[in-house]
Amino acid sequence: MMKNLQFLVFFGILAGTQCLLSCEQCLSSGNHYCADTKLCNTPVCVNTITVALNCPRKSNVTYDDNEARTKWLPLFGAGATNEKMAQKCFDNNWPTMKLSKRILVDCSDPSPVLPTTQCAMITAVDTTQRILVMSFRATYGNTQLGEEVLNYFVGKKQFFDVGMIFEFFYDAYVALWRGGLEQEIRNLKYKYPDYEVWVTGHSLGAALASVGASWVVKSGIFTPDKVKVFTAGQPRTGDYNYAMWHQNTFAYSFRVVHHHDIVPHVPFQYEVVDHDKMYHHRTEVWYNNDMSAGSTYQICPEADGLYCVNQQVDLSWNDHTHYFNTDLNVYGDQGCPKK
């Protein structure tokens, strides 16, 4: 009887200790963490966390919906159009921001059958608020969209020493880097050494923004504390190691998702070809509505788990092209009219 009682006491202490473990401690001990109960190794759990990347965590900085609408939206709108309209985007929304350079390069698939496609981005400078900008254009045309989709099954490339990213995103960014971006960003850094750099984009531009922010840090041009990353409708860009490094590197990094947008669900988290697992990095901001002014949003506690947008099964292309109640297909080309 005494032995049974001792066993029960020991088991109760052990179970209690397990319950007090943090998510990271729980996973490192070989157990699973329950996001619903916030306890380690809960026998019955709907949302089980098995990777440290998804351990619930609050964002390091506060998300600002008004700043997203009045500053970040015009920035990635300007990156989607030509020089004249890009500056008009700034004149209409952010008058102290001035276009510095637009870079347009061939980023085609090397296949001789497919027509040429191009990738584009802009840089800009605000000397009043001491901000530099890198804004990348979204997928442009059905041919480029087809190239992206096909390349999801091709493979990935090593990104410095921090993981793998999809080959199409890597090659597209390198084409921009070698096509004028490296010289431009080094010149801007030399001229404005203490400025922050804001990096943004939508769709393909969002993936390139993630890569671009990471690239200028790994290249030693900027320190992470000087970089802000804001993306909209971003596809999964890299593997687990890349996602983990990214979210541990950038304090200010928001990945906004609109309602049933299909693109953040691709490529699939589990890759059929090489059986690798691809992950989004933090911090997801999910608007489960039309994103009109005053709309509610949710700051997702997981990087790429079953919370927020991954709950959706009905997906929408229309939601991908409409952010902050704005049609991004025409927004930049109209000079980002102020609402």
TrEMBL record:
GO terms for biological process: lipid metabolic process. Gene3D superfamilies: alpha/beta hydrolase. The keyword DNA repair does not apply. Pfam families: Lipase_3. Keywords: Signal. Residues 1-19 form the signal peptide. Transmembrane segments: none annotated. Residues 133-270 form the Fungal lipase-type domain. This is Fungal lipase-type domain-containing protein. It comes from Caenorhabditis remanei (Caenorhabditis vulgaris). The lineage of its organism: Eukaryota, Metazoa, Ecdysozoa, Nematoda, Chromadorea.
